[in-house]
Amino acid sequence: xxxxxDGDPFDLQPEDLAAGWVPLWRSWFDEAVxxxxxxxxxxxxxxxxxxxxxxxxxxxxxxxxxxxxVFYTNYGSDKxxxxxxxxxxxxxxxxxxxxxxxxxRGAVTKVLPEETAAYWAERPRGSxxxxxxxxxxxxxxxxxxxxxxxxxxxxxxxxxxVPVPPEWGxxxxxxxxxxxxxxxxxxVHNRVRLVAPDYAAVRLQP
Length: 206
Fold this sequence. Notes:
The chain contains 5 helices and 10 strands, in the order H-E-E-E-E-H-E-E-H-H-H-E-E-E-E. By secondary structure, it is α+β, with helices and mostly antiparallel strands. Strands 1, 2, 3, 4, 5, 6, 7, 8, 9 and 10 form a 10-stranded antiparallel sheet that branches. Belongs to the pyridoxamine 5'-phosphate oxidase family.
């Protein structure tokens, strides 16, 4: 199984990042949306736990600017416990539909409570209730038990706004390294990397 990477008229150059990494990321994101790539804000998040064991999982990007990439989770989840032990992470946006990806890695900090509250207010009510119902990453006996937990919180907050759970919030990955990848013919792919603090764009061999 081998995909041909050709037909893309855009050819990534280091100078395309002269204005910084965010404008090009947004341009590629918009192209992924236009190409109807599934969940274009999905990203693969990598962490390392206190035993040095790496783990990856797919999460949704819920904020991105020059300060970094933001996602939200339960602070008792596996990923949160790994970040408590090793507050560094990497994410990759795998835009396979347009033969492109972007990789960001760096130190991780929690976002401010007011930023979490602003995002929480935008979440669908069902997602808010689901966050209350789940002790994320903890064992559960059955799907029926999860359904019961959801029904309990649904009844608890009936007719009122659902507050932010005390153990739920956001993380921001500060961009220490940002790399843009574009699939090209014969596997001679384009790779351009920026590294803090000056973020000078450097072309890498594929």
